[in-house]
Design goal:
One of its GO terms (molecular function) is four-way junction helicase activity. By secondary structure, the protein is α/β, with parallel strands linked by helices. It is built from 21 helices and 16 strands. It has 5 domains: about 55 residues, no CATH class; about 150 residues, P-loop containing nucleotide triphosphate hydrolases (Rossmann fold), CATH 3.40.50.300; about 100 residues, Arc Repressor Mutant, subunit A; about 80 residues; about 60 residues, Orthogonal Bundle (Arc Repressor Mutant, subunit A).
Length: about 500
């Protein structure tokens, strides 16, 4: 038997289409009597049909099970105060959690923020070393930290059964991405939450970025030419040679938009022109350039660097003689300082010519799969570029429709997207909860508000989150209670019982 994994890559309509996968049809031609098994966990009906057609499996038997996850509550919240919602969700649901963001920088910043709010968090992205990834994974798997803030690099092979909450901080590019990442919650069968947080600004800016950064043939010609210039590749050469690629340096040198470059590289990779490996990593090094006595003299006038300098001198013997590889993450833990603080201090010490410092490099590698052919190569894939852009736009619009539709059960929407029609409402998603609350007695809401305010003063957002009623119902009940002088607002815009009422 011939087994093809991730078979959705065969389809032009799959989110991870790879032209190289089309070569799999050769297997059918070369071994016509050997059965072929094509496996995928994220194929719409259109993708399934495409796989069968492209692989020329006329008598294909399609075996599929339902994608329904009855224990996952798909909650989509449109809120202008995402940070408050994020904190409240993680404090209320104290089990293992994942927060997905779209950039490496955001993973670090959000993890640091959550750690200041009484939560335990670490971060994960493709630029970390294998050792760093393993350490952070172990911390989260063992429950030493509650929250893993991660890019979509975190996911492959993750099988932690007791994840209670998966939160999407940014809008994913496709429903396949969202469904796959949300599905990492509740694998033990117990109730879990898949939460999407967004606001009007994010919705509009995501749309603008998508349209602005779509990659056309003229830009691909420019990008391909600049890549060849950057690596100094002669015409007719460069095939299967690996190049270290400093992404930010490349964008700055040629004054190119980083997001557009990233999209262009993704498209060139999808067309098998090159491989863009973002996991390249080189460690930081520190080398003291002055003698021990000179260091002491310097610290007399600059005592704020004393602890950092002595840390390196104590822990890295020979650092005066040669550049020493240093683990900045361990330094931050040992010294209880932020990564940015240590980085800035090292840069300043280098400016003062006390040390030579080379920062961590977590950019990328690029491998070209064809000799340099300039415009001829780009024109050869031009037809595919148009189809690729159309497919990406269609998938993105499906994602936005999922956010916009607040009438139909979220679970039903997802299942329908993957070809499962005539399913029943889940009863636990954000839409189903609102539909239930539409029948809620306003007097019950008022009673619940008064019960909470007997304990402490609370803002409207705190009440909405604590009560889990629809926002409009809570606000209506608050207005009634205010008009009846049952409650009042204090100087912090919090509601409390009106003790002045006679």
């Amino acid at each position: 038997m011939i087994v093809i994994d991730e078979a959705h890559c065969i389809s032009h309509w799959g989110k991870d289409f790879r032209p190289a996968y089309l070569e799999c049809v050769w297997l059918k031609e070369e071994f016509p009597k050997i059965p072929i098994l094509a496996l995928t966990a994220s194929a719409t009906q259109r993708v399934q049909n495409d796989i069968v057609q492209l692989m020329q499996i006329n008598d294909a038997q399609v075996i599929k099970s339902s994608l329904k996850r009855s224990n996952i509550a798909y909650m989509v919240y449109k809120t202008e105060d995402k940070w408050r919602y994020l904190e409240q969700i993680l404090h209320k649901n104290t089990g293992s959690s994942i927060v997905y963001v779209r950039s490496r920088k955001s993973t670090v910043e959000m993890a640091e923020y959550l750690n200041t709010k009484g939560l335990t968090a670490t971060y994960f992205h493709g630029g970390l070393t294998t050792e760093q990834k393993s350490l952070k994974m172990q911390m989260w798997m063992l429950g030493d930290v509650q929250v893993m803030v991660a890019t979509n690099a975190f996911g492959m092979g993750i099988d932690k059964p007791d994840v209670r909450t998966v939160i999407h901080w940014d809008i994913p590019p496709t429903l396949e991405d969202y469904f796959q990442e949300a599905g990492r919650a509740g694998r033990d069968g117990k109730k879990a939450f898949a939460v999407m947080l967004y606001n009007d600004y994010q919705y509009q800016s995501t749309q603008k970025k998508f349209l602005l950064h779509q990659t056309d043939v003229p830009f691909l010609k420019l990008l391909y030419a600049k890549l060849n210039a950057y690596f100094q590749i002669a015409y007719g050469e460069g095939e299967e040679i690996v190049h270290h690629f400093q992404f930010s340096d490349f964008c700055m040198r040629y004054k190119l938009n980083p997001q557009q470059v990233a999209n262009g590289l993704a498209l060139l990779e999808a067309q098998s022109v090159l491989t863009f490996n973002q996991s390249y990593f080189s460690k930081a090094t520190v080398h003291f350039l002055v003698s021990g006595n000179q260091v002491i003299d310097y610290l007399k006038n600059n005592p704020k660097y004393k602890d950092l300098v002595f840390f390196f001198l104590r822990n890295y013997p020979g650092i005066h003689d040669q550049p020493m590889v240093v683990n900045l993450e361990k330094v931050t833990v040992k010294m209880n300082l932020s990564a940015d603080k240590i980085e800035n201090d090292l840069i300043q010490l280098q400016k003062e010519e006390i040390i030579a410092y080379r920062g961590e490099n977590n950019d990328a590698e690029i491998t070209f799969h064809f000799p340099r052919r300039d415009d001829a190569l780009i024109y050869s894939i031009a037809k595919n570029v148009k189809a690729y852009n159309q497919m990406k736009e269609m998938l993105f619009k499906q994602m936005l429709r999922f956010l916009d539709d607040d009438k139909k059960c979220k679970s039903q929407q997802l299942l329908a997207y993957f070809g499962e029609e005539n399913t029943q409402p889940c009863g636990i998603c954000s839409v189903c909860v609102v539909n239930k609350q539409a029948k809620t007695n306003i007097n019950l809401v008022k009673s619940d508000i008064l019960a909470l305010l007997q304990q402490k003063a609370m803002s409207s957002q705190d009440l909405i989150f604590a009560l889990e009623y629809q926002q409009t119902i809570v606000l209506e009940a608050l207005n009634i209670l205010l008009s009846m002088n049952e409650i009042r607002l204090n100087e912090f815009n919090e509601y409390l019982l009106d003790e002045r009422k006679s």
